[in-house]
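I would love for you to help me understand the pair of lines that follows before we discuss the fold together.
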Amino acid sequence: MGMWRKLIDVGTRAAGLLLDHEDDKLPPDRRIDSASFAAALIALSAKMAKADGLVTTEEIIAFQEIFSIPPEAEKDVARLFNLFRETTLGYESYAKQVVRKFRCCPFVLEDVLDGLFHIAKADGVITEQEEQFLRNVSDIFGFSPLEYRRIRASRLGREPDDPYLILGIDETVSDDDLKTAYRRMASNNHPDRVLARGLPVELQDLANAKMAMINMAYDKILAERDNYHKLVH
């Protein structure tokens, strides 16, 4: 089953909802309109491609790779894609439309965001405008900064200043294991200790800089986790 249909079928089944002719049995605020959902996905994809100002052939191909569109729908999908790609204006409303239907199915929302990453990187580089677009959609979908970083890393790899990369741990690590990893890194890299192991005095500034980087990474993770706990409690 292609992602085009999977996003609708799997997400709907997980939400305990019904599609099309069956959803007239549901309250109006819980009904699924598969055509509207499909249009929202096309709009988000097209506007993602437009985020850096230029829609490239690679991005169009990436969109086609994500959504296995049935042959009979190709012309309609292409027409909508071309319409939506004229501007990025309004993409937030389409993201909100998707999340209204699948708020209880974060794995469906993650599939959508993952697909947008695939489009964004299709031309070989993700611009600042594209990054902001993706962050905004992630926020609308309700993902925390930690979750966004994990999804981003799965597509793009980790950034050099990623605090989890600096401490050599994963986002899913427990708070206790985080503290253990930090203490181990701090102990092994403390300037006094590395000097005692024979580091030339001339390189002490490098040792100090590395220790500062470790401390900054730990503080950043603690701040992010503290903010996340405040949001969910």
Observations:
- DSSP finds twelve helices and no strands in the chain.
